[in-house]
Amino acid sequence: MDHTAKRALLEQAVRLLGRMKVAKRLGVTEPVLGAWMRGETPMPTINLLILATMLDEQAKGPGRSGQAS
């Protein structure tokens, strides 16, 4: 995945969850998160799994397992 796509996912997570929560879940400081978002430094690929999990949890919403009833 290219850096532009990673940044787009990161920006979406921040819009939905807020900078502080995203930084905490990714295990980085807010300044590091900001550098990733500005493209100053690339977000490590390993963080994509955490980011994808966060977005998936948000999409499912509280109390939803994502399985059909």
Which key phrases capture this entry?
69 residues, mainly alpha
Strand and helix layout:
Blueprint lengths: L2 H15 L1 H8 L3 H9 L8 H14 L9
Helix pairs in contact: 1-2, 1-4
Distance between the termini: 34 Å
- Tally the helices: 4
Report the β-strand fraction as a percent range. under 5%
Mean pLDDT: 86
Number of strand segments = 0
**Could you list the spans in which at least 5 consecutive residues all have pLDDT below 50?**
65-69
Shape designation: globular
CA gyration radius, whole angstroms: 13 Å
Q: Biggest sheet: strands, sense, closure?
A: none
Secondary-structure element series: HHHH
Q: Structural class from helices and strands?
A: mainly alpha
**Percentage of residues assigned to helices:** 55-70%
Describe the protein in words:
With 69 residues, the chain is an all-alpha fold. It is built from four helices and no strands. It has helices at residues 3-17, 19-26, 30-38, 47-60. Helix 1 (3-17) packs across helix 2 (19-26) and helix 1 packs across helix 4. It is globular, with a radius of gyration of 13 Å. The chain starts with a helix and ends in a 9-residue tail after the last helix.
In short:
The chain is mainly alpha-helical and 69 residues long.
